[in-house]
Amino acid sequence: MRLKYVLNEVLVGLWRNVTMTIAMIITLTVSLTMLGASVLLYLQVDEMKDVHYGRIEVSVFLRDDVTDAQRTSLQAALQRNPLVKSLTYENREQAYARFQRIWSDSPVLVTAVRPGALPESFRVKLKDPETYDKLAAQLKDQSGIGTIVDQRELLSKVFAIFGSVQKLALVIAVTMAVAALLLVANTIQVAAYSKRREVAVMKLVGASNWFVQAPFVLEAMAAGVIGSIVAFAALYAGRSVLFGGPSGALTTVLTPIPEGNMWLMLPLLAAVGAGVSGITAWFTLRFYLRV
Amino acid sequence: MRLKYVLNEVLVGLWRNVTMTIAMIITLTVSLTMLGASVLLYLQVDEMKDVHYGRIEVSVFLRDDVTDAQRTSLQAALQRNPLVKSLTYENREQAYARFQRIWSDSPVLVTAVRPGALPESFRVKLKDPETYDKLAAQLKDQSGIGTIVDQRELLSKVFAIFGSVQKLALVIAVTMAVAALLLVANTIQVAAYSKRREVAVMKLVGASNWFVQAPFVLEAMAAGVIGSIVAFAALYAGRSVLFGGPSGALTTVLTPIPEGNMWLMLPLLAAVGAGVSGITAWFTLRFYLRV
Amino acid sequence: MIALENVTKTYPKASRPSLDAVTVGIEKGEFVFFIGPSGSGKSTFIKLLLHEVQPTSGRVVVNAKDVTTMRPWRIPHFRRSIGCVFQDFRLLPNRTAYENVAFALEVIGKTKAVARRVVPEVLELVGLGGKEHRYPHELSGGEQQRVAVARAFVNRPLILLADEPTGNLDPDTSIEIMRLLDRINRTGTTVVMVTHDSNIVNQMRRRVIEIESGRIVRDQARGVYG
Amino acid sequence: MIALENVTKTYPKASRPSLDAVTVGIEKGEFVFFIGPSGSGKSTFIKLLLHEVQPTSGRVVVNAKDVTTMRPWRIPHFRRSIGCVFQDFRLLPNRTAYENVAFALEVIGKTKAVARRVVPEVLELVGLGGKEHRYPHELSGGEQQRVAVARAFVNRPLILLADEPTGNLDPDTSIEIMRLLDRINRTGTTVVMVTHDSNIVNQMRRRVIEIESGRIVRDQARGVYG
Ligand SMILES: Nc1ncnc2c1ncn2[C@@H]1O[C@H](COP(=O)(O)OP(=O)(O)OP(=O)(O)O)[C@@H](O)[C@H]1O
Ligand SMILES: Nc1ncnc2c1ncn2[C@@H]1O[C@H](COP(=O)(O)OP(=O)(O)OP(=O)(O)O)[C@@H](O)[C@H]1O
Ligand SMILES: [Mg+2]
Ligand SMILES: [Mg+2]
């Protein structure tokens, strides 16, 4: 019976205190949207890091005077090597063709390099790009190798930027979580303030703390869940706008956000929204109204 | 007298409705901080665009078989040209040295280019980078010119990214402005709601609409100004953290924010804060309480 | 001074009218008791005079002004000529007794100096000397009621409406308040007082209007209660 | 049933105690009138019994429990054995008359079915049949007071405290309410009633405790008013 009373109370409460409820939902929506956006950004950059990481190759350039035997033995050694995921061979013509393609908008550089000036190479993808040093050590005594180039170093600037963006996203996420907490605490405090007479009357009639508090807390949590759903909808809409078609503002900067990450936001935001507002409501009533 | 009454009312009001006032200030602080941050980001990217734009050069590469006479005449023509801001000459050795320096971490490419394979060139800075086409047309009938390369095209990808970030900053700024409006409207609506009995009594005693509304609106505006000052302080602190020292999260991505732009935020945020909250308060009372 | 012409008021949720075709006239300077059982429409009558509620039909004229057709922006000014003691006091909860009374003076544009002179005097009159700086919740029921009385007459209105101004007062204090209202009435103010106190009505011997279920059932020049 | 031992209560802002070394005992099943001028401390007495305010010194015993030293978590349960009509009604503003009365039943864990049976009956008893679904602001002053009375006795408390329960009622309705309180008293409930109505006190001829400036000045077994 008591439970039914409380549930009924929550629904009626949500309906009656429309102003308060809407205030709380809007507050939560704004904060949760920002929170969700920063978490998505963080995940997205992670994903882009992975993609770039996955593309990283170790180029094993061969000496100009490499012999067929050396080449074959090196290829065999690389194919046997447990660190290696895949291996492609690029001869001088292929290397030049690729060079021309990549630098097509720098004609001066293209003309400066003779066909055949670029050495042949093995392009190695490692199972784990971090094991580059190991591979280099293992190849040390193989003859016929010119230089070994690890793209990781070339991409270090890109990764530094990714790192910065992630740090920033984290800072924003934490800031927004704190802001959400403050705003929700405030809204609830105001709600509690506007209900203080009612609470006082209930207590004078003999209502227990639990009886007074439960509907309030559940109401706040319901508002939290609704807010998180609206926030999710806003994020979804935002994604369509920012990534929609080639003219979307973010298509040049970020890879598209996968559906999976997107839907992950729903339970995350709902949990944060309900949790933050529920706990805040409980504490607010506890200390503010001395229920 | 009436004015004095109203001013007194505002101060007393701010003090008495501490809960409401703090709620409003926090709400405004959060929204205005985000708004300020996005505006700063927008300005900053603008600045970076300018810096990159200022560095843009047109490289006029000379043919391998260029004669001294052709070179001298071309130099004279460029120096006379009103579009040109500055001009430097780079011979083959200088070009190769520069190439080696820039590509030092791609040893394969460096070895693939012979010293002297890179052509000599005039590096031209234009007064306005956009006038590249004009310059190209004027140089068409000059002999001895190989290719003319406009860095603008090379940098187009960078500029596309800048453009995207600016668009995004604008979207966030507008979103935050709207969110601020919603949140403030809400807080004020809740404040008005909690004051509805008081307002009703005042009106029954014969207080005019102006008399009831003015303290309320001024109180909201005062909260707006305080919120904007706190937001400014938060931005200032945020700048120190994010750009502080080489370990700051943003030092690799953005150039440091100039003091000038920073201080521009103070009047901007104050105006937005006071304006939004004042107008919202007025409308809320007008329509919500039918003052 | 006050005239209701065939006024009917039916609240949205009510099944029957709270005032039913009431016609009544009150002259300048009169002292009128309004009596009747609980829920008969006495407070509704007062609320109509203040333009707090609008009649469903009929005309309400107060102070030679037709209240029903009055422009909204004229209402504040109109209300300043009427003092009202509400049944539920309606004090401003976050102002002290002094500030509550002073508010009625501020509204009509009096200076703080005037308030400082007049308000303590008036509070003394209703027996609240020394309690000026209490907030309403720090006063007893009867004390709150007396603050409401003080606020109603502090700015010397033309009309004084009092909805059970002695409901929370002991007989002695009630008589004090009645003496006060009588004195105010003698200075020319029209007084309409709703009451359930038969002793007071019987003692004062003034005009008595009795209302039952929204209809006037008695209107006697020097009447008694029941 | 109720015992105050040398109880003094001085409010923080007040210059003199509102209750001054009061010692009084009330037996189970008694009917006691509490009278005294406005501001003499009657409501403070009621508030002490409910643990709404704490005494500055002295002991308050209600229902064989020492209220002063009661653990906070026991208070709700303790209050459920006391019904109270507050001077300012204290109805829940966003609940209807029905819901306000039903609340007192919900609090003690009665089912909705019980409420549906009992509440309309009780509202009928106080003369509010047909007005169950009105919100407090849609009721007249006297009607609100009667809702408060209905809420106070709906859950058959051991003690009924009534702070001027007829202050906003006409004499006839007052007598109805008094009959009701009398009937409740006859079932064994202790009734303490604060009132300013001399007619009622004189008619009932019950124990009268008179208080003045916080001191008990009279305690008479079958007393009259003043
Ligand atoms: N806002 C409202 N909505 C619906 N009905 C209302 C409203 N206000 C008052 N009523 C009804 O109108 C009738 C008259 O109310 P009114 O307040 O005028 O009574 P009253 O004579 O002042 O009674 P009391 O002596 O109890 O104060 C009552 O039956 C009441 O229930
Ligand atoms: N919270 C408070 N702070 C300060 N003084 C208070 C407070 N509450 C009551 N008082 C004072 O205590 C005294 C007694 O108050 P109480 O409410 O008990 O009077 P009462 O006998 O019920 O009067 P009434 O018949 O007018 O209701 C009054 O003088 C009042 O001003
Ligand atoms: Mg009434
Ligand atoms: Mg009292």
Task: Give me the secondary-structure topology.
The complex is a heterotetramer, with 2 copies of chain A (291 residues) and 2 copies of chain C (226 residues).
Chain A: H1 2-16, H2 18-55, E1 58-62, H3 68-80, E2 84-90, H4 92-102, H5 107-112, E3 121-126, H6 132-139, E4 145-150, H7 151-154, H8 156-194, H9 196-204, H10 209-243, H11 259-288
Antiparallel strand pairs in A: 1-3, 1-4, 2-3
Chain C: E1 2-9, E2 19-26, E3 31-35, H1 42-49, E4 57-62, E5 65-66, H2 75-79, E6 82-85, H3 97-107, H4 112-125, H5 141-153, E7 159-163, H6 171-186, E8 190-194, H7 198-204, E9 207-212, E10 215-220
Parallel strand pairs in C: 3-8, 3-9, 6-7, 7-8
Antiparallel strand pairs in C: 1-2, 1-4, 4-5, 9-10
Bound molecules: adenosine-5'-triphosphate (ATP) (2 copies) and magnesium ion (2 copies).
One magnesium ion (MG) is lined by residues 42-43, 87, 163 of chain D.
Structure characterization notes:
The complex is a heterotetramer, with 2 copies of chain A (291 residues) and 2 copies of chain C (226 residues). Chain A is 71% helix and 8% strand. Chain A has 291 residues and is α+β, with helices and mostly antiparallel strands. Chain A has 2 domains: 2-52 and 156-288, no CATH class; 64-143, Alpha-Beta Plaits, CATH 3.30.70.3040. Chain A has a 4-stranded antiparallel beta sheet with strand order 2-3-1-4. Chain A is elongated. Chain C is α/β, with parallel strands linked by helices. Chain C is built from 7 helices and 10 strands. Chain C has helices spanning 42-49, 75-79, 97-107, 112-125, 141-153, 171-186, 198-204, and strands at 2-9, 19-26, 31-35, 57-62, 65-66, 82-85, 159-163, 190-194, 207-212, 215-220. In chain C, the strands form 2 sheets. Chain C has a 6-stranded mixed beta sheet, sandwiched between helices. A 4-stranded antiparallel beta sheet of chain C has the order 2-1-4-5, covered by helices on one side. The radius of gyration of chain C is 17 Å and the shape is globular. The relative contact order of chain C is 0.19. Classes of the chains: A alpha+beta (291), C alpha/beta (226). At the A-B interface, helix 2, helix 5, strand 4 and helix 8 of A face helix 2, helix 5, strand 4 and helix 8 of B. Bound molecules: adenosine-5'-triphosphate (2 copies) and magnesium ion (MG) (2 copies). One adenosine-5'-triphosphate (ATP) sits between chains D (11, 13-14, 18, 36, 38-44, 87) and C (131, 138-143, 168).
